[in-house]
Write a structure and sequence with these properties.
Largest sheet of chain C: none
Structural class of chain C: mainly alpha
GO molecular function, one term (chain B): phospholipid transporter activity
InterPro entries (chain B): ABC_MlaD (IPR030970), Mce/MlaD (IPR003399), MlaD_Phospholipid_Transporter (IPR052336)
Number of strands of chain A: 10
Shape of chain A: globular
Number of strands of chain C: 0
Number of helices of chain C: 8
Distance between the termini of chain C: 47 Å
Helix content of chain A: 25-40%
Organism (chain B): Shewanella holmiensis
Protein name (chain B): Outer membrane lipid asymmetry maintenance protein MlaD
Pfam families (chain B): MlaD (PF02470)
Oligomer: heterotrimer
Largest sheet of chain A: 6 strands, mixed
Largest interface: B-C, 26 and 30 residues
Chains: A alpha/beta, B alpha/beta, C mainly alpha
Radius of gyration of chain A: 21 Å
Number of domains of chain C: 1
Radius of gyration of chain C: 22 Å
Strand content of chain C: under 5%
Number of helices of chain A: 11
């Protein structure tokens, strides 16, 4: 444990022993629009790794690339040494059983209640008897504090409760890794606090590897063990929260402090203001 | 998950679909479950069958007693051969009976009219596979008009 | 626009068209080309048959009744001039079994069930439920698309049968009960003129083909939707338009093959 934490403290994450996910020289674009240009990062086992960046840079896309829902233009994603994008369909599905994803919208199945949502993957992938499935589901719901809401439909839940129910579903199969897509977006302070606590607790108690994609600086710096900051198609900074706070990179300072103007300009690139106002509108 | 109500309704839906199919087949298309037992076949040779179709009825005095089962052309004589499926309930037609192709109404469908012949001691009844010798083919409107014009022109002379 | 650009635009359009056919074919192939697990698959299909079939029954039955009645009334007015009102039965029954049954059922099905399918799958996509299945190592094509496809294909011929039968009953109501055609004449001429292989089996074939096409288009439009409200509403509309056009065009083709000689 001490060895790993000292590694995290150092500036070279690539020397980490046997990371769970390695992303090497990844490039991806939607048509002609380049989203990522040569990104490399490593996600260590049993830690909370955060990927931050301003909105609109395709953080969700990165998670989909890790889950092999999208295929990169260049580069590779290794999950426990397996290249996700060259696996056959059956192999890929085997690997996906070891990970799960918490979607921004929760993505609960709207036609079944919370209990069945959580039980869904168990029923599909295991041949456990219904009584055992019931106990597992109730345990997972207890962990997220929603055992009382087991037989409510997703539409009856508040946004925060939906996300917690989705979290219970995500951990139902006891995955090795959970990918969190913007878990804090649009949450009130109370449910935000609950989610922060849950992610941290799950990571510590189940030895889960967590990947949190977010732009909520305060919460992320509060729970992450290691942080990557992505902007302009590249990783612009990485390190532990303390290192990032101490950084003197102006782009990073603007992002962390939430300054309206800085290296990322307030104005979208445009022609000169005065000139455009005075020019004839043809 | 499936509720009892959904299962019941889907079952009902499937049954009513199949039922509709059965009603259409057996009631609207009037398909009878045929077995060889209640039918016998007759064969007849016509010089011209006009617009006769397979499944056209065979009638005696307006009562349907059978249907046309098959229409083929005799290879050597080059005349139409019509096979009839007759109802076993009506199996007392003498050999001397005759068949003619008639039309229902002025423009209606064509059917076969069976005219029962006389019965005598040495006349047998028609049985399975028998051939009816006395046949009259369809009246062809064009031929009739041709004959009419011919007879009119011959009168004029 | 210069001629070169025009040619390029035509080419681009053609490539997009062909590739969308390819994608639609691939989607269906990947959804249904596997041995299903009956224990998990059958309940899913039953549930979708409830959504697609049972819920379309009311509109199908009511429309069938009215179309049969209108057909009989209009037919009677024409036939009575020739003194051949007894032929009303075959006229109504043949129109329904050969054309209106399969076609109108398919059009109503496209409007009632097809649009709902597209919207449902589009919504599942935009709320990331499909992605979520994918990440749970469950193929959304098999879990979501395949049961809906089979349910649509099974439901359509059943609905067409019900439509035709109710339509004939509607014809009976108008012809016999209202206009006073003799019941015996109506039914015997009707029965004499309907050939079950020619008319009823062809009705089944047509409606099954329409079932495949309408369900397929609806599923593909939903699956390939732009995941936002505007995209879903556009996809729903295009499902109805494309499915209806496909049904009408295919109907001509099938009719030519079956009755064209």
């Amino acid at each position: 444990m001490a060895a790993i934490s000292s590694n995290i403290m150092s500036e070279t994450p690539t020397v980490l022993q046997n990371p769970l996910v390695e992303i090497n020289h990844l490039a991806f674009g939607w048509g002609k629009k380049v989203i990522y240009d040569d990104i490399s990062l490593t996600i260590p086992r049993g830690k909370v790794t955060a990927i931050m960046g301003p909105s609109g840079i395709g953080k969700t896309t990165l998670l989909k690339l890790i889950g092999a829902q999208l295929t990169p233009d260049k580069g590779e994603v290794l999950f426990d040494g397996l290249n996700m994008h060259t696996l056959s369909r059956t192999e890929l599905y085997q690997v996906r059983k070891r990970m799960s994803m918490l979607f921004q919208s929760g993505a609960l199945f709207t036609d079944m209640n919370v209990f069945d949502n959580v039980a869904f993957a168990l029923r599909e992938h295991s041949s456990l008897p219904e009584s055992i499935i019931r106990s597992i589901v109730l345990m997972k719901l207890q962990a997220v504090g929603l055992r009382g809401a087991a037989f409510m439909m997703p539409s009856e839940l508040s946004g925060g409760m939906q996300r917690r129910a989705a979290l219970a579903r995500a951990i139902a199969l006891e995955p090795e890794m959970v990918l969190y897509d913007e878990p804090f977006a649009g949450q009130d302070p109370i449910s935000m606090g609950m989610l922060v606590k849950l992610i941290r607790e799950l990571s510590d108690s189940l030895k889960l590897t967590s990947v949190v994609v977010s732009h909520d600086v305060k919460e992320v710096l509060g729970i992450a063990d290691y942080v990557y900051v992505i902007a302009n198609k590249k990783v612009i900074a990485e390190g532990t929260p303390e290192q990032l706070r101490a950084s003197d990179n102006p782009q990073l300072i603007q992002f962390i402090q939430g300054a309206p103007d800085g290296p990322v300009p307030f104005h979208y690139p445009a022609a000169d203001y005065q000139q455009e106002l005075l020019s004839e509108s043809n | 998950m499936l509720t009892r109500k959904i299962e019941l309704l889907v079952g009902l839906f499937l049954l009513s679909g199949v039922l509709a199919f059965c009603v259409l087949v057996f009631n609207v298309a009037n398909v009878k479950v045929d077995t060889k037992d209640n039918h016998y076949t007759l064969v007849a040779e016509f010089n011209n069958i006009g617009g006769l179709k397979v499944r056209a009825p065979v009638k005696v005095g307006g009562v349907v007693v059978g249907r046309v089962a098959d229409i083929t052309l005799d290879d050597r004589k080059l005349v139409p051969i019509v096979t009839l499926t007759m109802d076993k309930r009506y199996d007392h037609f003498p050999e001397t009976s005759s068949l003619s192709i008639l039309t229902s109404g002025l423009l209606g469908e064509q059917f076969i009219g069976l005219t029962p012949g006389f019965v005598d001691d040495d006349i047998e009844m028609l049985g399975n596979g028998d051939r009816v010798e006395d046949t009259r083919g369809a009246l062809i409107l064009e031929d009739l008009i041709g004959q009419l014009l011919y007879s009119m022109s011959s009168k004029d002379k | 626009m210069s001629p070169i650009n025009l040619i390029a635009a035509i080419g681009r359009y053609a490539i997009e068209l062909v590739s969308s056919y390819g994608k639609a074919g691939l989607m269906l192939w990947r959804a249904i080309a596997h041995i299903p697990n009956p224990k998990k698959g059958v309940p899913l299909v039953i549930k979708q048959m409830y959504v697609l079939g049972v819920r379309s029954m009311v509109i199908i039955l009511v429309s069938g009744l009215f179309i049969g009645m209108v057909l009989a009334l209009q037919g009677y007015n024409i036939l009575v001039d020739f003194g051949t009102e007894d032929s009303l039965g075959p006229m109504v029954a043949l129109s329904l079994l050969r054309e209106l049954g399969p076609v109108v059922t398919a059009l109503l099905f496209a409007g009632r069930a097809g649009s709902a399918l597209t919207a449902e799958i589009g919504l599942m996509k935009s709320t990331e439920q499909l992605s979520s299945l994918e990440m749970m190592a469950i193929d959304p094509l098999r879990q979501i698309i395949a049961p809906r496809f089979w349910a649509g294909v099974i439901s359509m011929p059943l609905l067409a049968m019900m439509f035709s039968l109710v339509g004939i009953f509607g014809g009976h109501l108008v012809g016999v009960e209202w206009k006073g055609i003799d019941t015996g004449a109506f039914w015997s001429i009707l029965q004499a003129s309907i050939e079950w292989r020619e008319d009823i089996v062809n009705c089944l074939i047509k409606s099954t083909v329409f079932g495949v096409v309408v369900t397929w288009i609806a599923l593909y439009r939903g699956y390939e939707v732009q995941p936002n409200p505007e995209g879903i509403s556009r996809a729903t509309t295009s499902t109805v338009v494309q499915a209806s056009l496909a049904v009408l065009a295919l109907d001509f083709l099938l009719t030519a093959l079956m009755f064209g000689n």
